[in-house]
Specification:
6 strands, 2 domains, two-stranded antiparallel sheet, about 45% helix, disordered N terminus, alpha+beta, about 160 residues
Amino acid sequence: MILVIGTAVAYPQSIDPHQLYEQNCGGCHAPHAGEFVPDNLVHSDGNTVGRKSGVELRAFLEAGHGRLTQDEIMAIVAHLNSILKSGQLFREKCLICHDRAVKFARLQLTLKDGELVGRYSQRNIGQFLTSHGRLESDQVPQMVDVLKRQLVPEQPE
């Protein structure tokens, strides 16, 4: 169900895109979306499409692949798009020491007044990352966005 309020659109908050992927997609595809996306999806002409098929992701899912509801399709498309846009930064820079981004963020991080902070240290993660994780200065805001998304998934378009 989509609730339209003025010009804003509210999407179901109960859908966890990580869990949705793992339960509905991971049995046939890679077990986690972060492993699936780089090998199987690309951006083409403003759309997310299958790397081999060239078929637009949303249309593919709406045609019945995965047997998802419309709300689930919107959530999974937003999730997979977010992973594609992130460029695998967490996987390249952080996975060597930390668990998957979703697990790490949900166990170790939290949002305080809209800022990403350490759950126990209350340290501002954006500031901390300027000297942690071998990140270039322009990668810090991107990593903060990646980690925030694990706590508050990107809303479907």
